[in-house]
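User: Hi! I'm a student and our assignment asks us to look at how structure tokens line up with a sequence. Could you show me two examples?

Assistant: Happy to help. In each example below, the sequence comes first and the structure tokens follow. Example one:
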Amino acid sequence: MLSTIVIDNFFDNFELLLPEFKKIPLHDYNSYPEKDENSVWPGKRSLHLGKTHPFIWQLTNKEIQQKSGNERLMYSRWKMSVNTHLRLAEDEEPDYIHTDPDDWTMIVFLSETNLKSGLSIYDKNKQETQNIKFVQNRAVLFNGKQFHRSSLNYGDSIDNGRLTLNCFINFL
């Protein structure tokens, strides 16, 4: 099983990328044109960046391969779905502990550092085993089948809310 990998300073020249992440259009679940009827999520999410913003998708792919230190990611074939996700204070209550159907999940914290927020990972009994703090430009790569949840959604806009880059990786 994959151990959690934390990569600080995931994107080089992050200060140039952040304004571009904030320009990406977001949709709530009800208006999301590509929704999977088997999953629901709070907040707002972009379409898959591989289709709408291929440069960001490719840059994310490159950074994972170069910075994860994981041989499987460096040498195996895999596919990845990437989107931005905004969660605000109003999304805290509808958020929930869940698993992803993907082999691995990676979350990159895009907003300003907020040490009250982060990512919680749980064991099979839904007892928290890890809490990774929300540090801007930090990537957290983990087994998507592990229970997890955002810890503290906050703010009321893209400028002060919890903006992340969510990546879902499946090996071929």
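Example two works the same way, sequence first and then tokens:
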Amino acid sequence: MDSAVLITYDQDDMIDEAVALCESADYKVKHIIKQNFLQKPKYGLSGGK
């Protein structure tokens, strides 16, 4: 199993979804970095992507 550092928005539902996506891709989340604003919005997930 590969490991990953997860950078996501500081909202519980967003964190839960991102962790679930990592686990479904067979990645173990080693650390979570929470951001209120992502500097590179093209890497953020939203309803429009």
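Here is something you could point out in your write-up. The helical segments are 12-24.
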